[in-house]
Design a protein that fits this description.
GO molecular function (chains A, B): DNA-binding transcription factor activity; transcription cis-regulatory region binding
CATH class of the largest domain in chain A: Alpha Beta
CATH topology of the largest domain in chain A: Rossmann fold
Organism (chains A, B): Pseudarthrobacter enclensis
Oligomer: homodimer
Helix content of chain A: 25-40%
Order of helices and strands of chain A: HHHHEHEHEEEHEHEHEHEEHEE
CATH architecture of the largest domain in chain A: 3-Layer(aba) Sandwich
Keywords (chains A, B): DNA-binding, Repressor, Transcription, Transcription regulation
Protein name (chains A, B): LacI family transcriptional regulator
Largest sheet of chain A: 6 strands, parallel
Number of strands of chain A: 12
Distance between the termini of chain A: 74 Å
InterPro entries (chains A, B): HTH_LacI, LacI/GalR-like_sensor, Lambda_DNA-bd_dom_sf, Peripla_BP_I
CATH superfamily of the largest domain in chain A: Response regulator
Number of helices of chain A: 11
Chain lengths: 364, 364
Amino acid sequence: MNRKATALDVAKLAGVSRSAVSLVLNGRGDGNVALESQQRIREAAAALNYSPNKIALSLRNRQSRIIGIVSDQVVTSPFDGNIIAGADAVAREHGFVTVVMDTELDGSRDEGAVETLLDRQVDGLMYVTVGLRPLHVPANMDRVPAILANCFDDRPEAVVPAVIPDEVRGGREAAEHVMSLGHRDIAFLAGDSLTPAAPRRIEGYRSAFLHAGLPVNEARVLQVGWDIDAGFHGTMKLLDGVEPARRPTAILCANDRLAIGVVLACYRLGLSVPQDISVMGYDDEFRIAKAMVPALSTMALPLREMGAAAMTSLLRDVDRQQAPDDGGTAAPGGKEPRSGTSAETMVPCRLVVRDSTGQVPAGR
Amino acid sequence: MNRKATALDVAKLAGVSRSAVSLVLNGRGDGNVALESQQRIREAAAALNYSPNKIALSLRNRQSRIIGIVSDQVVTSPFDGNIIAGADAVAREHGFVTVVMDTELDGSRDEGAVETLLDRQVDGLMYVTVGLRPLHVPANMDRVPAILANCFDDRPEAVVPAVIPDEVRGGREAAEHVMSLGHRDIAFLAGDSLTPAAPRRIEGYRSAFLHAGLPVNEARVLQVGWDIDAGFHGTMKLLDGVEPARRPTAILCANDRLAIGVVLACYRLGLSVPQDISVMGYDDEFRIAKAMVPALSTMALPLREMGAAAMTSLLRDVDRQQAPDDGGTAAPGGKEPRSGTSAETMVPCRLVVRDSTGQVPAGR
DNA sequence: TTGAAAGCGATACCAG
DNA sequence: CTGGTATCGCTTTCAA
């Protein structure tokens, strides 16, 4: 429990000066410090279990190698934690550490979180949300390099770059998957329109019909909510007391929990999945989609990839800002702050086919 | 994007020395600095939007006001995030910030995480796990005040204190709940014995029978796993093709996902919940238990409370260590390092009654 | 009442 | 090749 060894301790033990210690331990010893001294220094460092005090380093280098992450409720809720995991993995690879502040959906805490993080001299800032949504970027967030993950700058000029999933394409590919199994009467249970995720997935669903030259039956799109019970009751509305020939043959859901409700309702009505009706989830929620009975076909959100992509891009900006301008600055065209990259990076979702989708029943 | 203002900037603007700024801004101005100067200093600070550089503070005070949290997979998985949320809330109240490192279940990364955190000069360390389990405490973790949440020191001497849920009592109260509804033939679907959570819950289940003066039917305890499909197949084994009078009337599950599987199986068999059979979950998983059809009766894990309790205790130790010994040290009895507290703090679970449990069917 | 100076731990420059 | 010294931003003595 005794205090850690400092460079001075090492120097004393090795009988040299602090500077020598610094040089040797940073690989700049050769040609500067006598080999014999180097040896002694290394031994002393090992003996004392020396490692430099990162706080002192931060002060001196004016960079903390800390990335601040503000989350709206990623920590508290069971969702989207993999965005942070992906981001953190990349940060760690680069010798950065992340500190996460969760506002638990209290928007008034945004600025405070950013302020706290800035006081801690973070080198960069990331904002992560549960579910795709527009973000009112907190003040001062742009004082250091910043990026958004799973949300996007709500200002028309979109100052802060963002990494988001390609929900439109996800919705479309989900629909195309069941179409490829022969389904034509396909319902969509779709969360709500409070966040852009559901509307975008619906847009993809519509575009699948358009591309297939099929009409879209708007009555098949139900914005019911996001939870199990919503899926259950939505399905009851779609199927209960409806003659078989007029039932949809497939139900697409805006997330996996809705799909649980759908299957629950099907079983209650004595229907089999996927023999009588095909069901698809969305998200590929850990320990849910794969473990369902039947295992859910779903559209996996690329959470880890999003986090990793966001952090990669952020660290590039951090480097760029800290390195004094070199080389290419004389390029014609001038100032471009973000080197021509679009402000929004789209990451594709991934179709996962399991057991809840099957061929359309004969005669439909 | 320009660098933040320093105390020197404030001093210059106010026409005083750095020391005066420091004094005033830390409330020690009265009696040391002229009121007029104080006013000017405060104005200057506000004008420059000054706030002290925490890194410099940390270096000077030899304390970072950072608590390091090592998690085995709390960040990555959808579970138990509320432990961290609870811990973080308490930390924030006390002006601390937490930095979380997730090892993603790779035990070999434990020591590295602790090392990294220690290099960052954290004032304290917490280890958080998904699901109760014994922990092989990483080396060096005891170089600063430390605590475990949802896990416990696997060494017989139990050096590091821990905060864990009272699983035995939880299991017992779950069983007592359905007993109070008249059930006597109660099955338990129980995860596995790889972690102590399921065995302890089973132990509670048994003790409920003992206290009620009823025999325990060991054939009713099935260690099937933790996921939806395990619940489904376990239930099938219990109910499918079994004559009604020989079926259990209630099924207790070691978590809420198992309960989903149970209900799924019941529906498939044409059984109603809770009319034909009562089902109970465990955990009160967010967006699952409450949203199920029917809404699940369950035993809520006190995650937030555990995190908060662990952090409260940890910060007390941090304070104690940093404050030089004052007053009471002369108390008789001497050294006691942990002021007599037991190393393991148990937090009770909370019974949540919803719609999946009901009176035992007539005649059973 | 105020300002000057010392140190927290590490690095990098620059004389020696 | 080496060791002294300034610096990062802040607090806290200590003299004036």
